[in-house]
Amino acid sequence: MNLQSTQTGRISTVGIVTLLILAVLMGYAVFRAATKEEHPAGTPAQEQSIATDAEAPDPDEMKGAWNIDYTASQIKFTGMDSGAAFDGAWLDWTAAIHFESTSLNVSSFDVQIMTAAVETGNEDRDQALRLWTWFDSDNYPAVLYQANQFAERDEGGFVANGYLSVKGKRTPVSLEFTVSEEGGRFVLDGETVLDRIALDVGLVEFLDTQWIGQFVTVYVHVEADGTL
Questions:
Q1: Following CA atoms 215, 186, 62, 93 in sequence, which dihedral angle do they give, to the nearest 10 degrees?
Q2: From residue 136, how far is each of 114, 166, 206 by CA, in Å?
Q3: How confident is the model at residue 58 (pLDDT cuts 50, 70, 90)?
Q4: What is the pLDDT of residues 165-178, one digit of tens each?
Q5: Rounded to an integer, what distance in angstroms lies between the CA atom of residue 181 and that of residue 175?
Q6: DSSP state, 212?
Q7: 216 - beta bridge partners?
Q8: What is the model's pLDDT at position 35?
Q9: Positive or negative CA dihedral for 167, 172, 173, 178?
Q10: Which of 118, 128, 196, 127 minimizes the C-alpha distance to 164?
Q11: Where residue 184 falls among pLDDT bands split at 50, 70, 90?
Q12: Are the beta carbons of 175 and 137 closer than 8 angstroms?
């Protein structure tokens, strides 16, 4: 089993008049089929019409935020496909990070990830991840992680408790991370495990976890030169 979907169609014509009638009817049928594909059973059309509740951080929110070096930062993940582990990365994302280890009550994360900008080393898999059965990038181009509750961990480091918005659904997600500072440069390394089924990512036949893993580990590495 792999992450691919196909669609076939056939048109037959009999006579000029019949051709015109069938053209209209088939055009309507194709429209209905496309609508059904975009809004599968069990997914309200009006919910699908909402592009995304994940919006880019407001410019005002960037004041005092980390001055992120995106060339040295990355958001990666590891999953299972066809019984084998694979690595992937999100190539287009932005973040407004406000963090003070001595002022956790005023710290916050606001991260936006563009779901179409995924790379796993397999083009077929990348294309499949953009479809409605996975991230539905056409209707929901971005996911958003927002957190404003932080705590120190007994094992060291911190935990951010926030919400991950995927396809219009908000799910509580905690991110464990560490922060270090060297010469005015901040370095954050974090990790969390996501349940893709709970996020409605990987629907229909992909709900079977025999070949497609249910859990995905996400790794975050952020480097920043001071604040804005």
A1: -40
A2: 11, 10, 14
A3: low
A4: 999 999 999 999 99
A5: 19
A6: B
A7: 194
A8: 35
A9: positive
A10: 196
A11: confident
A12: no
Residues ≥6 apart with Cβ < 8 Å to 124: 2, 3, 4
Task: Quote the strand ranges of 106-157, DSSP E.
Answer: 108-114, 118-119, 142-152
Angle, CA of 103, 175 and 194, to the nearest 5°: 160
Instruction: Give the span between the Cα atoms of 126 and 119, in whole angstroms.
Output: 6
Alpha carbon distance 43, 38 (integer Å): 9
Q: Return the CATH number of 52-227, one of 2.40.128.260, 2.40.128.110, 3.10.180.10, 3.40.220.10.
A: 2.40.128.110
Type of residue at 7: Q
Q: What is the pTM of this model?
A: 0.74
For residues 39 and 46, what is the distance between their CA atoms, to the nearest angstrom?
Answer: 9
How many H-runs (helices) and E-runs (strands) does the chain carry?
3, 11
